[in-house]
Amino acid sequence: MHVLVVHNRYSSAQPSGENRVVDEEVALLRAAGHRVELFERRSDDIAARSLLGKAAVPLLVPWNPAVRAKLAARLRAERPDVVHVHNVFPLVSPAVLAACADVGVPVVATLHNYAQVCPPGTLHRDGRKCTECVGSVAALPAVRHGCYRGSRLATVPLAVSLSVNRRRWWSGVERFFCISAAQRDLLVRSGMPAERLMVKHNFVPDPGPRREGAGEHLLFLGRLAESKGVRLLMEAWDAIAADGGVGVPLVLAGAGPLEAEVTAWAAGRDDVRYVGLYDPAQCRQAVARSVAVVAPSMAPETFGLVVAEAMAAKVPAVAAGHGGFVELVEDGVTGLLHRPGEAASLASCLRRITAEPDRNQELGRAARLRYEQRFSPAVGLERLVEGYRTAIAVRPGGANGAPPVGNGNEGSRRGVRAGRDGDGQ
Questions:
Q1: Which helix (H) or strand (E) holds 173?
Q2: Domain membership flag for residue 281
Q3: Same domain, yes or no: 298 and 343
Q4: What is the tens place of the pLDDT at every residue in 255-295?
Q5: Which of 44, 47, 58, 53 is nearest to 90 (CA)?
């Protein structure tokens, strides 16, 4: 199969789970013998733009006509079987959907977050879950609250894009990959076409190192942000420390807006270590030496890569009991779920996960088995290819349909799909 992957890469200033998922899927497909090409833009390139070019970036968020033209030309030249869209913000834009329609190439899109119904994609505001824009045509609540980077002005392009391109997404994508059933359920309730939404969990490569023994520390690995539950974790840990601790330290690895706060909180303590950013190899080793990985997100995560990575390493997780975490962690079997946003519940789970080493190792073995059955590369490849084949088959004319009728420049589609007219945008 010939696949063209479209992705706007996030800034390299901080690690991106989404970038990693894209890279790992590309590698997985290529290793299985599929031809995979990339159409990418990079947020890092914005810094090199002129002042005028930087000022124009918000205008490109809803629609980038240059991307439409360049992608359409490439599609006509390369003739992929399917286009797989990931992130389009801020430089790619939904114009890629029009390019695919121009040439008659089927599209699948992975929904890594909730950007289809929430301008910043998080369903989180002011320390709590927020669904005010779900089902809202204009996404005005997000603008009013300044949900993207705390700025009304910065939120406007995202809200405009969501509003004007909603129907384009819903009609221009043959299959959406939701990375959890919880995400799919919410999107269906918001009005997205249920028949186009399929659950395809992210897969996690086998990490190599697996835990042997009881583990040395509890580990938070991720972005240091309120939405990730960092302040909640600090509150819960202070309560545990006041009761004498749990016998192992808490290690926090990552970067983000709360870095200075975390650094100050951890300074001078024997029971807490802030280690900054780890490289991938250090992450794998830190996970494999953990009693448990802690994922106390305030926002309902669409998946939770760090939890799946822990499971692959035979390490249980303590996670917030909402969003995609409830599909990863079977409470009391592969880890523990705490009540979202409740420090006392989180503290109780951290005490329980460290209190019985033998029970903890049982949880770890069950977590590894669940990983093998649901989140391994073999399972991920199967679901990925299934989605591609379904998208190709449901195009007008089906998988054995006639080549598209074009203007003479379209050429043959090798008998696997039919085309459709562009939308005139």
A1: none
A2: yes
A3: yes
A4: 999 999 999 999 999 999 999 999 989 999 999 999 999 99
A5: 58
